[in-house]
Amino acid sequence: QVHMVESGGGLVQPGGSLRISCAATGNIFSITAMAWYRQAPGQERELVASILSGSGRTRYQDSAKGRFTISRDNAKNTVYLQMNSLKPEDTAVYYCHGLVVTTTSGGYGVEYWGQGTQVTVSS
Questions:
Q1: Is 120 left (phi over 0), alpha (psi -120 to 50) or beta?
Q2: Cys-Cys crosslink for 38: which of 5, 47, 61, 92, Cβ 3.0 to 4.6 Å?
Q3: How many CB atoms lie within 10 A of CB 97?
Q4: What pLDDT does residue 81 have?
């Protein structure tokens, strides 16, 4: 079993910054990619940013470009999302996602989700 544990959410004023983290633990053989999604009340879950393990290639939602940075520490199986210039519309529950090859998945990647961390941008 693999667990994705997020941390670092909270309340921040508009224009402020916040960094959230997600650590993957368990019977991990390798992690192909990790990503951050978010879901605001009454809205569908949407991809915010993703990063590939091997190449480090990143992808961002348009609203996150230039403000958010996704990074990863492969040795710690941890992904980070640095969020700057936060806006009230960034308020949401942020979920960590991983495509993980476990020691028992036969080489196939399995999707895992974290429990979510609340980010609230308000004055």
A1: beta
A2: 92
A3: 20
A4: 98
pLDDT for 23:
97
Which of 72, 94, 71, 111 shows the shortest CA–CA distance to 7? 94
> What is 33-101 written as a DSSP string?
EEEEEEE-TTS--EEEEEEETTT--EEE-GGGTTTEEEEEEGGGTEEEEEE-S--GGG-EEEEEEEEEE
pLDDT tens digits along 92-110: 999 999 999 998 888 899 9
Q: Quote the CA–CA distance of 96 and 2 in Å, as a whole number.
A: 13
* Residue listed under structure tokens 């979920």: 95
Q: Checking phi first, is residue 102 left (phi over 0); if not, alpha (psi -120 to 50) or beta?
A: beta
